């Protein structure tokens, strides 16, 4: 049987079953890629709604039929129904990367070109043999993935930073003119959620640290988790939040945190690709926190104006909350906060003034490296000496390290709790549950 032109032929069961000359594998793949590319570029909004379970896949099916007809696509040796199924499968999956999405041992996937793919396991980058057919097939795949995030990828919007909630992965795509030689893709998989007891069993905190975290959750503490990329601060923050029983609002750019507390609201920023669209920043979400009737604000990570907004909440009667920040030490957490507050222009530029504000609004800094808590430091402002005081409670002394681990020993109860912590312990009637030496 010869070539069937579906633009001219009517769509019916008999026609679908008509036998024709078979396509080669490469020809079939090229046909699927062509139709998939058209579907993704024209209907990214529908794809996003289907993935979010707002509409059914049948809606996209009809759009695929329209594209086949409009583009006058010729098909040989395969029914229209088979083509539709292949396109739908291609649209809603991750092609050659799907097996790494499904592999729990893989943390991240990095594609530098159509034939240069790396995966990250146990903080080690491994190049894999998989590759896309060619650069054009790779670019079509990137357009599809951007649609998963509800974003448009084109020359005027060459960067996409979003989330595919169906798979719980963070997506970053960059194409020309930003990338010089080839498009790039980074897929960061959602971090595993572990209870604090598991972290204790793994030796990443001491028993004394564990007890202090539990105490902080009971008496209320305004805590900042600091660390470098991949240090484990987000995973640990998530474990800590499971102890919080107060009404909580979690505010993030990209959803990563999930608590067992049912009295929790989850909010995320929005970024529109059009002038008329809605843009809501982290700072906007934090400013709105007071209207949520919640007691415990959580900002996934502070990087800008949201830092001063969060501290403003801490300064107006909210004595508990949490966030994370990129930093190189407990003291550098303060330096990073000072930088962000200065950049906001809301508190002036005098370091001493900002340090006083931080000392009033932050209670505890937790610094992490390679998933281990290295420092637990209370901070407060000494008005007599006019300086910010770093008051270490527990620490891990590093004696060595390899690519994935730190080696050394914990030193606990370096000081009794500060006056701020002891006052809250007394107010909540928990003195009898605290070691005597920590209340001196």
What does this structure look like?
With 440 residues, the protein is an alpha/beta fold. It folds into three domains: 4-91, no CATH class; 95-189, Beta-Lactamase; 196-439, 3-Layer(aba) Sandwich (Rossmann fold). It contains 15 helices and 17 strands. It has helices at residues 13-16, 25-42, 44-51, 57-70, 80-91, 98-102, 135-148, 196-201, 207-219, 233-241, 282-288, 306-314, 330-344, 351-361, 419-427, and strands at residues 4-5, 74-75, 108-113, 116-121, 124-128, 159-164, 169-174, 184-189, 222-227, 248-252, 264-268, 296-299, 321-326, 364-369, 372-382, 387-401, 406-411. The strands form three sheets. It has a nine-stranded mixed β-sheet with strand order 11-10-12-13-9-14-15-16-17, with helices on both faces. Strands 5-4-3-8-7-6 form a six-stranded antiparallel β-sheet, with helices on one face. Strand 6 (159-164) and strand 7 (169-174) form a beta hairpin. Helix 11 (282-288) packs parallel to helix 12 (306-314) and helix 13 packs across helix 14. It is elongated and about 85 Å long. The protein starts with a strand and ends in a 13-residue tail after the last helix. Mean pLDDT is 86; it is low at 1-21.
Strand and helix map with partners:
Layout: E1 4-5, H1 13-16, H2 25-42, H3 44-51, H4 57-70, E2 74-75, H5 80-91, H6 98-102, E3 108-113, E4 116-121, E5 124-128, H7 135-148, E6 159-164, E7 169-174, E8 184-189, H8 196-201, H9 207-219, E9 222-227, H10 233-241, E10 248-252, E11 264-268, H11 282-288, E12 296-299, H12 306-314, E13 321-326, H13 330-344, H14 351-361, E14 364-369, E15 372-382, E16 387-401, E17 406-411, H15 419-427
Parallel strand pairs: 9-13, 9-14, 10-11, 10-12, 12-13
Antiparallel strand pairs: 1-2, 3-4, 3-8, 4-5, 6-7, 7-8, 14-15, 15-16, 16-17
């Amino acid at each position: 049987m010869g070539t069937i032109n579906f633009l001219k032929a009517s769509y019916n069961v008999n026609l679908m079953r008509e036998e024709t000359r078979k396509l080669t594998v490469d020809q079939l793949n090229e046909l699927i890629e062509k139709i998939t590319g058209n579907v993704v570029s024209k209907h990214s909004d529908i794809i996003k709604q289907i993935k979010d379970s707002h509409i059914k896949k049948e809606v996209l099916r009809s759009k695929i039929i329209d594209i086949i007809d409009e583009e006058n696509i010729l098909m040989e040796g395969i029914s229209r129904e088979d083509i539709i199924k292949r396109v739908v499968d291609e649209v809603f999956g991750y092609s050659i990367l799907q097996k790494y999405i499904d592999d729990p041992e893989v943390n991240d996937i990095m594609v530098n070109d159509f034939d240069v793919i790396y995966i990250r396991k146990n903080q080690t980058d491994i190049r894999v043999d998989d590759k896309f057919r060619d650069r054009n097939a790779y670019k079509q795949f990137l357009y599809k993935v951007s649609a998963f995030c509800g974003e448009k990828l084109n020359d005027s919007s060459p960067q996409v930073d979003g989330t595919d909630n169906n798979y719980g992965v963070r997506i970053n795509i960059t194409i020309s003119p930003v990338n010089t030689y080839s498009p790039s893709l980074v897929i960061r998989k959602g971090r595993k959620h572990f209870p604090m007891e598991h972290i204790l069993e793994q030796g990443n905190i001491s028993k004394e640290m564990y007890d202090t975290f539990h105490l902080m959750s009971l008496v209320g503490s305004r805590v900042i988790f600091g660390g470098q990329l991949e240090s484990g601060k987000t995973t640990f923050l998530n474990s800590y939040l499971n102890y919080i029983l107060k009404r909580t609002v979690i505010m993030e750019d990209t959803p990563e945190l999930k608590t067992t507390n049912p009295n929790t609201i989850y909010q995320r920023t929005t970024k529109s690709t059009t002038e008329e669209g809605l843009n809501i920043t982290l700072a906007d979400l934090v400013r709105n926190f007071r209207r949520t009737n919640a007691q415990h604000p959580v900002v996934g990570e502070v990087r800008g104006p949201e830092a001063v907004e969060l501290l403003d909440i801490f300064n107006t009667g909210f004595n508990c909350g949490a966030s994370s920040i990129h930093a190189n030490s407990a003291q550098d957490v303060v330096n990073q906060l000072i930088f962000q507050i200065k950049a906001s222009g809301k508190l002036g530029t005098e370091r001493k003034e900002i340090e006083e504000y931080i000392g009033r609004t932050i209670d505890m800094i937790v610094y992490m490296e390679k998933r281990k808590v290295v420092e637990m430091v209370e901070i407060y402002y000494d008005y007599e000496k006019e300086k910010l005081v770093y008051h270490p409670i527990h620490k891990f002394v590093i004696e060595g390290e390899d690519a994935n681990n730190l080696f050394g020993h914990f030193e606990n109860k370096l000081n009794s709790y500060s006056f701020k912590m002891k006052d809250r312990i007394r107010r909540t009637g928990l003195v009898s549950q605290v070691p005597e030496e920590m209340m001196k």
